[in-house]
Task: structure prediction
Amino acid sequence: GAGVSQTPSNKVTEKGKYVELRCDPISGHTALYWYRQSLGQGPEFLIYFQGTGAADDSGLPNDRFFAVRPEGSVSTLKIQRTERGDSAVYLCASSRTGVSGANVLTFGAGSRLTVL
Amino acid sequence: AQSVTQLGSHVSVSEGALVLLRCNYSSSVPPYLFWYVQYPNQGLQLLLKYTSAATLVKGINGFEAEFKKSETSFHLTKPSAHMSDAAEYFCAVSETGRRALTFGSGTRLQVQP
Result:
């Protein structure tokens, strides 16, 4: 596609529920990134995929968070047993390759998650 | 470990005035540095990036930034602010060998008429 697409744009859920957030990267981009942006903060790195594999998941806060990218394109961020502190905007980005730290990331508009 | 500090969470300037947004980085190796802008309800957009080719980097919309190794700074400037520049600006750093960007906490720019 022309840009990075994220769905849903808004998600309201109750504490303890399971949530999936989807990211459709730019066609041909092999690297995909998930970030979390809390109110008044900069984006915080969660996980980075190179192709189908998670090359760096050091930013995932705990084992309630999991992400997959089974075919090397679309990715899903999964959050189990949601907590109020998980409320944030979840940003997805992609880049042509992940080889160089100089690669430019193209971001989606984000999925705003609210946990009541 | 790399980190980014943006001094001033809010900056207000008059239309036509100089814009200066500050960014200092901490990195154990020569970094790559980026400035992104975020308009309300939109994704982050790249303004400019430094990759060691030149210390003065020109970006979109009249913005530029200068890499100063001695000061570990990468401040963003624009000679004359427009109302359309009102947005949140993020400085980010990455290091060779680490693919993910580390972002600062952001600076919200307000432009007064």
